[in-house]
Design the sequence.
């Protein structure tokens, strides 16, 4: 396949200089940076983060030939005390041409606070008619995903605009039954290329990503290794194109 891959879920503020170079070298020319402010205490932390990604990091990525887009939202790993102020600001940030989604949002603990924050952000996504990128936790995943999908259903979010990330065999049935888009985080801790290929029919509607962060061992262009794995096993080129580029391009209009 021709390159021009889309990294559909990363965190630009955590990517080192060499990481952007690695992304470009492996054929990634567009990327989606999701919001995350670990242990945030104040809404201003998110406002500064949104501006930093859309400004400084977008220019840095462009110096490597990568067009950087972003999503805005309150990550469950950092919900500030004054989180409603962030929610109120989201439509203004979304009005930018380079901010194309709400995310990364979701739940880790299935707490009342997390449910309230998620619901409020899905309501913004619905009113602004933009995709929402949903984080899934490491533990108790089917139950938490079920609750998040119930919230999305009550809000009335268009399922085709809902990305359920870090999909694996334990939750892919729930994602597909709801009609949401599977986010396929390709790394040892999440979905591996051999599992993807073995169950390609389950994951074919998805979007591959590396979900790079500097808090665990991973590769800012890691999903391209999965592309090469599929190519070596002669997976249909149209399927590879969809997973590595086309599904994300269509969803985010990028």
Sequence:
């Amino acid at each position: 396949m021709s390159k021009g891959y889309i990294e559909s879920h990363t965190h630009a503020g955590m990517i080192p200089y060499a990481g952007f170079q690695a992304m470009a070298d492996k054929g990634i020319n567009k990327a989606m940076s999701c919001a995350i402010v670990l242990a945030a205490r104040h809404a201003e932390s998110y406002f500064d983060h949104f501006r930093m990604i859309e400004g400084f990091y977008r220019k840095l990525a462009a110096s490597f030939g990568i067009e950087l887009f972003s999503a805005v939202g309150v990550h469950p790993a950092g919900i500030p005390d004054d989180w409603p102020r962030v929610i109120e600001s989201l439509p203004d940030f979304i009005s930018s041409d380079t901010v194309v989604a709400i995310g990364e949002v979701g739940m880790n603990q299935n707490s009342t606070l997390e449910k309230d924050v998620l619901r409020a952000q899905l309501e913004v996504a619905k009113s602004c008619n933009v995709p929402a990128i949903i984080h899934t936790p490491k533990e108790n995943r089917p139950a938490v995903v079920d609750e998040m999908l119930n919230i999305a259903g009550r809000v009335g979010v268009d399922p085709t605009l809902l990305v359920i990330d870090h999909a694996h065999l334990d939750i892919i049935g729930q994602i597909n039954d709801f009609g949401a888009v599977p986010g396929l985080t390709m790394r040892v801790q999440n979905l591996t290329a051999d599992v993807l290929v073995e169950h390609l029919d389950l994951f074919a509607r998805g979007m591959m990503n590396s979900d790079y962060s500097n808090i665990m061992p991973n590769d800012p262009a890691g999903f391209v290794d999965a592309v090469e794995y599929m190519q070596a096993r002669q997976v249909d080129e149209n399927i590879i194109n969809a997973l590595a580029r086309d599904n994300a391009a269509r969803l985010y209009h990028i």
Q: What stands out?
A: The first strand starts at residue 5 and ends at 10. The chain has a mean pLDDT of 97.
